[in-house]
Amino acid sequence: MKKILLPTDFSENSWNAISYALQLFKNETCKFYLLNTYTPIIYHVEYVLVQPAQFGLVDAVRENSLKRLNDFKEKMTATFKNPKHSIETMAVFNTLIPEIKDVVEEKEIDYIVMGTKGATGAKEVLFGTNTVHVFKNVKCPVIAIPDGFDFEIPQEVLFPTDYEIDYKYHHIKPILNIVSLYNSRVNVLNVSYGYDLSETQKSHKKTLETYFSDNECLYHSVSNQKVPEAITKFQLRKEVNLLIMINNKRSFFENLFFKSKINQIGFHLNVPFLVIPAKTIKKH
Q1: Residue 22 to residues 87, 99, 103: CA-CA distances in angstroms?
Q2: Which domains, and CATH codes, for the chain?
Q3: What CA–CA distance (Å, rounded) separates 130 from 29?
Q4: CA–CA distance from 283 to each of 109, 136, 139, 140, 191 (Å)?
Q5: Contacts for 95-100 with beta carbons within 8 Å, 24 or more apart?
Q6: Are 182 and 215 in contact (CB under 8 A)?
Q7: Spatial separation of the C-alpha atoms in residues 21 and 4, rounded to whole Å
Q8: What phi and psi, each to the nearest 5 degrees, are found at residue 87?
């Protein structure tokens, strides 16, 4: 059974991500954890520690969170009517990232699916700060869904890589899980600066070929382009339905996303984006 975490702030953007998840995994037996974290705006640690019982605001905010979670759960059940799917709601007094980390470990989550838009809705901020923090800090595959994206079967999957990663099964398994559901074609895109692959890179590429041996997989190579440019050009030539990257500290993923200020990413994405951590939490 797949276990999927759906963080929600009850926005249209988060509903869009939830409906994508329910459609992507419609043929899989899944347990969805619908999570809302809340911290009252005038929350003062000292006050809560001294008089928790009289801190009625927390109760009011919690009630609101529980009610809205229940509304979302009912909407999910009514819209998708899928007997293979069960939904558990979680209203938690915490900030989002620490709570996601706890849930991922405790529930052994397979994927987190969330919207990309920050609460500001500013167009120039592509990924909301929360999404980027999840990419950086949570050891679990994350599927980030662009604002307003309608579900498409992931027929063409784009996987840019510099072959600098010593691929392990835990890197590739989240990709295989999805592409095997839809017989997707995997397009591995190597972006280089015109140099030939080193022996190490060739060895990593061979490992990758072994993992994808049962899937339709094409290997592409482009040189003297920056990664965002190479991805954009590829998308213009071929309609990509899912972009995948491994977040390796030494890879171009890190350069692509985290060189700029954390919440100002100049990489414009119009398809769902699966980010796989280089290291994952060992399953119990």
Answers
A1: 11, 22, 19
A2: 2-145 (3.40.50.620), 156-244 (3.40.50.620)
A3: 28
A4: 9, 20, 11, 11, 33
A5: 95/37, 95/39, 96/7, 96/37, 96/130, 96/133, 97/130, 97/133, 97/134, 97/137, 97/138, 99/35, 99/37, 100/5, 100/7, 100/35, 100/134, 100/138
A6: no
A7: 8
A8: -130, 130
Cα separation, 11 vs 4, whole angstroms: 19
| Separation CA 43–CA 39 (nearest Å) | 7
pTM of the model: 0.87
How far apart are the C-alpha atoms of 173 and 246, rounded to whole Å?
Answer: 12
Low-confidence residues of the chain: pLDDT under 50: 119-126, 260-266, 284
Do 118 and 128 touch, CB atoms closer than 8 A? yes
Segments of the chain assigned E as strands: 2-7, 30-37, 85-92, 111-115, 142-145, 156-161, 185-192, 216-223, 242-247, 273-277
How confident is the model at residue 194, as a pLDDT?
A: 75
- Determine how β-strand 273-277 pairs with β-strand 142-145: antiparallel
DSSP designation for 117: -
Q: Provide the sign of the torsion angle of the four alpha carbons 54, 58, 62, 68, taken in this order.
A: positive
Q: What is the pLDDT of residue 147?
A: 84
Residue 88 pairs in a beta bridge with 33
